[in-house]
C-alpha cells in the first residue's frame, strides 16, 4: 500500500508541476502579448509626436510667410510684371527672381520648397523627370499659396520653384553620395536648417 500511495503522490505532484508549468506558460504568453501591445502603443505615440512636430513646423513656416507677406506692399494684379527665366544654367536664382536684396524672403521660399517636396512625398533620390506631375503640381501650389510673391503671373511656369527643386534634389543626392548612403529616408534632416545657395 505504501507503494500505491507514493505512486499516487508522485502522479499528483507531476500533475501539479505540469499545471504550474502550464500556468507559467500562459502567464508568459499574456506578458508577451501585453509587451507587444505596449510596444505598438509606444510606436503609435512616437508617430503622433512626429506628426505633431511636422504640423508645428508647418504652422511656423506659414506664420513666417504671412509676416513676410504682410510686410510687403500689395501690388495690384495689373502691375505684376512677368519675370522670365534667364537662358542657360549659370545664373543666381535669387538675383533672377529679383530678390538679391531680400535674403529673408528668398530663404523662406527655399525652406517652403524643401518642405513642400517632403510633404508631397517626392523620392529624394529620383531625378526631376521621374517625379509624377501631380507631386510637382502639389509643390508648386504649396509654394504659391505660402508666398504671394511666387504668383504665376510673375513667374510663368513656376520656373523659380522648379529650379529650387532641381537644386535641392541635386544637393541632397550629392550629400548622400558623399556620406556613403545611397538610399536613405525620404525625410531629410536638413529641411529646416540647410541653405541651398
Count of strand segments:
0
How many angstroms separate the termini?
A: 97 Å
Q: What string, H for helix and E for strand, traces the elements in order?
A: HHHHH
Question: Which parts are unreliable, with pLDDT below 50 for 5 consecutive residues or more?
Answer: 1-6, 184-197
Main sheet characteristics: none
The proportion of residues in beta strands is under 5%
- Quote the average pLDDT: 81
Q: What is the CA-atom radius of gyration, in angstroms?
A: 30 Å
* Proportion of helical residues: 55-70%
- The gross shape turns out to be elongated
Give the helix tally: 5
Structural class: mainly alpha
Description of the structure:
It contains five helices and no strands. With 197 residues, it is mostly helical. Helix 1 runs antiparallel to helix 3, helix 3 runs antiparallel to helix 4 and helix 3 packs across helix 5. The longest helix has 70 residues. It starts with a helix and ends in an 18-residue tail after the last helix.
Which secondary structure elements does this structure contain, and how are they paired or packed?
Layout: H1 2-71, H2 93-96, H3 103-119, H4 133-146, H5 159-179
Entry keywords:
5 helices; single chain; 197 residues; mainly alpha; elongated
Amino acid at each position: 500500500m505504501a507503494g500505491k500511495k507514493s505512486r499516487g503522490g508522485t502522479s499528483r505532484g507531476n500533475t501539479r508541476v505540469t499545471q504550474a508549468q502550464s500556468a507559467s506558460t500562459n502567464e508568459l504568453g499574456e506578458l508577451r502579448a501585453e509587451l507587444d501591445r505596449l510596444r505598438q502603443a509606444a510606436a503609435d505615440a512616437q508617430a503622433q509626436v512626429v506628426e505633431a512636430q511636422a504640423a508645428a513646423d508647418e504652422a511656423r513656416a506659414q506664420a513666417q510667410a504671412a509676416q513676410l507677406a504682410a510686410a510687403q506692399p500689395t501690388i495690384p494684379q495689373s502691375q505684376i510684371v512677368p519675370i522670365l527665366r534667364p537662358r542657360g544654367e549659370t545664373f543666381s536664382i535669387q538675383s533672377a527672381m529679383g530678390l538679391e536684396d531680400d535674403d529673408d524672403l528668398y530663404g523662406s521660399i527655399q525652406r517652403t520648397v524643401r518642405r513642400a517636396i517632403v510633404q508631397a512625398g517626392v523620392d529624394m533620390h529620383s531625378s526631376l523627370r521621374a517625379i509624377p506631375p501631380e507631386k510637382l503640381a502639389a509643390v508648386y501650389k504649396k509654394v504659391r499659396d505660402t508666398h504671394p510673391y511666387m504668383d504665376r503671373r510673375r513667374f510663368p511656369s513656376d520656373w523659380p520653384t522648379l529650379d529650387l527643386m532641381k537644386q535641392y534634389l541635386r544637393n541632397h543626392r550629392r550629400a548622400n553620395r558623399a556620406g556613403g548612403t545611397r538610399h536613405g529616408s525620404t525625410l531629410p534632416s536638413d529641411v529646416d536648417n540647410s541653405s541651398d545657395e
